[in-house]
Amino acid sequence: MDFTAKKLPPNPSRGANPISKLLFLWIIPFFTKGYKKELQEEDLCDILKEDETERLGNELEIYWQNELEKAKLTGKKPSLLRALLKISWKTFFLVVIVYCVNQCVIMTCQPIFLRLLIVTFNEREIDDWKAYTYAGAVSLTAFLNTLTLHPGVFQIFHLAMKLRVATSTLIYRKSLRLSKSAQNKTNSGQIVNLLSNDCTRFDTTINFVPFIVSAPFQFAILMYILYDQIGPACLAGVAFVTEDKQVIEKGKPVEQEEKKSGGSVTARTYWEYFTAGHSVFGFFSVVFTFCICQVFVSGNDYWLSYWTNAEAKRKDLENNVTICTDPNDKACEDTYLARSPLFTHVAATIQGLTTIRACKSQHILVQQFEGHQDLHSSSWYLFIAANRCFGIWLELISDIFLVLVAFSFLLISSCKHVIK
User: Fold this and answer.
1) For 123-240, where are the alpha helices, taking DSSP H only?
2) Can you give the CATH number for the domain in which 100 is found?
């Protein structure tokens, strides 16, 4: 299959203005198209130049070769982390700055302004200027949180996609150069597992890294504020923060030991227990009571399912809406399903590696792999953009509601003051 001949529509984010990129307005026409008809492969858009598989693979391969050469000179192990940082440190640095501003400034200031607003209402004479200022500050921090968090999350997931594509490409190129002895020790399942399991961890774990960087700064700021408000008492809670880590680390071994002590009880033990009072009437009374309790417990399932069925229907409705608007018929949400042609191609390559080398067709296979990868990147890019679009607009609606509630109390209070 010649992927170079496949032409997809240009990516709408490429020519979008800053406001459209900030609010993800460029993807709304895609929702409209998905609502009118079932989306097909030709409805996807072209990938950005920075997301091209060939470009990312070549860039990572250059830095990886530098690491290998440096390792030969120094005798140390080459570091894949350093190679990945060299192709992503600029974007990652900007995202970390956005996260630090969001967590350490915006999210920290919002409860402070909210406290000042509440204190203003508790005063005998409400200062309108101060009240409106604090209400505006609470509303502003809510909007700033929304407008910084979601674009930052989108960029970190976009970066994770690029790292996954680069490492997957490097693994595939390496598989084409496997020696005969290495080929006998390596099967297609191991390489597919690397691509489907290990490389996919970029998409699920890298979004937590900026929080690790911003957490110490946020902790220091919050500790200063708490110490200023309640004094040394704030240190009591901090002293037990490490207890959670110990519970997590030792919880699983303790649970395993508790399971070892579990045993079985025979029916004779129960019979001796119930007849210990030498009363058959008491025994049957207990059995009858247990039966009645079981009836009530079973009847409880009906009332439990009464509202859970309604929640299940709401979930089905949500899934139907998502399927209508999702870039790849919901399949792109499941990375394994959306990349199944890629894994099939890799498995076929490993199994026919001897024939491929004999025909010197490695470049054709690499081209097809890059085509599969680019197609998945196109659907995945739209998926994360659609996800952030839903998130940012839902939060903007919530922020507008917050503004209306905050200022409505001020207006009601002002009206009461005028009437008096």
Assistant:
1) 128-176, 180-185, 188-193, 201-205, 209-230, 234-238
2) 1.20.1560
Closest CA to 172 of 8, 339, 47: 339
Q: How far apart are alpha carbons 409 and 391 in whole angstroms?
A: 27
Which among 135, 129, 127, 131 has a CA at the least distance from the CA of 110?
Answer: 135
**Predicted structure pTM score:** 0.75
What CA–CA distances, in Å, run from 317 to 38, 39, 320, 328, 385? Answer: 17, 18, 5, 18, 21
Residue 298 lies in a domain: no
Report how far apart, in Å, the C-alpha atoms of 194 and of each of 88, 197, 200, 347 are: 21, 6, 9, 12
| CA–CA separation, 406 and 136 (whole Å) | 8
Average pLDDT over residues 41-56: 88
In a domain, 16, yes or no: yes
- What pLDDT shows up at residue 160? 93
Q: Please, is 47 exposed, middle or buried when counting C-beta atoms within 10 Å of its C-beta (0-12, 13-18, 19+)?
A: buried
Convert the pLDDT of each residue in 295-326 to its tens digit: 776 766 666 676 667 767 766 666 665 555 44
Quote the CA–CA distance of 411 and 60 in Å, as a whole number. Answer: 59
User: Is there a domain that residue 50 lies in?
Assistant: yes
Give the C-alpha separation, 298 to 304, whole Å. 10
Count structural domains, the chain.
1
**SS3 assignment, position 192:** helix
Q: Which amino acid is at 284?
A: F
Q: Which residue has the higher pLDDT, 239 or 360?
A: 360
Structure tokens at 218: 């946020």
Q: Measured between alpha carbons, how far is 419 from 199 in angstroms, rounded to an integer?
A: 67
Residue 67 contacts residue 170 (beta carbons within 8 Å): no
Residue keyed to tokens 């020696």: 179
Per-residue b or e along 268-289, where b marks 16 or more CB atoms closer than 10 Å to that residue's CB: eeeeeebeeeeeeeebeeeeee
The tens digit of pLDDT for each residue in 231-273 reads 887 777 776 666 666 666 666 666 666 666 555 666 676 666 6
Domain housing 145: 3-248+327-419
Q: How far apart are the C-alpha atoms of 420 and 418, rounded to whole Å?
A: 5
Tell me, yes or no, whether 273 lies in a domain.
no
Share of the chain residues as helix, strand and coil, in percent rounded to the nearest 5? 85, 0, 15
Alpha carbon distance 399, 410 (integer Å)? 17
Tell me what the mean pLDDT of segment 67-71 comes to: 91
Pair 332, 383: CB distance under 8 Å: yes
